[in-house]
Amino acid sequence: MSKITITPAEGTWIIRAGGAVLGESSHALELVEGDRAPVIYFPREDMGMAFLEATDHKTTCPLKGDASYFSIMSKSKTYVNAVWSYETPIDDVKQIAGYLAFEVQEGVAIEQLP
């Protein structure tokens, strides 16, 4: 099993989709799972939830629990199931409960502000 570490993400982070800023946070978390690239999790209250639409898509991770998904609705494109959240994660990763993670892809970027 991969080991998961969760730490406060240093500095301020922003998420952009379709050229628009969806949110900015200095309270993001960085999750590292084994040798995978770190994933930044954003507090929901720092995101423009009006850009996100819940979908029926679900996945299960043995280390984190059940994830629910959102699509990003930008003016130019819909990024289907590009956002996930663990509403009730397993106890080992309970810090990410309700936080949002974004799939980086063309048109979706996560940036750390200098």
UniProtKB/TrEMBL annotation:
Pfam families for this protein: NTP_transf_9
Cited InterPro entries: DUF427 (IPR007361), DUF427_sf (IPR038694)
UniProt domain DUF427: residue ranges: 15-103
PANTHER family (UniProt xref): BLR5716 PROTEIN, DUF427 DOMAIN PROTEIN (AFU_ORTHOLOGUE AFUA_3G02220)
Protein name as it appears in the record: DUF427 domain-containing protein
Species of origin: Pelagimonas varians
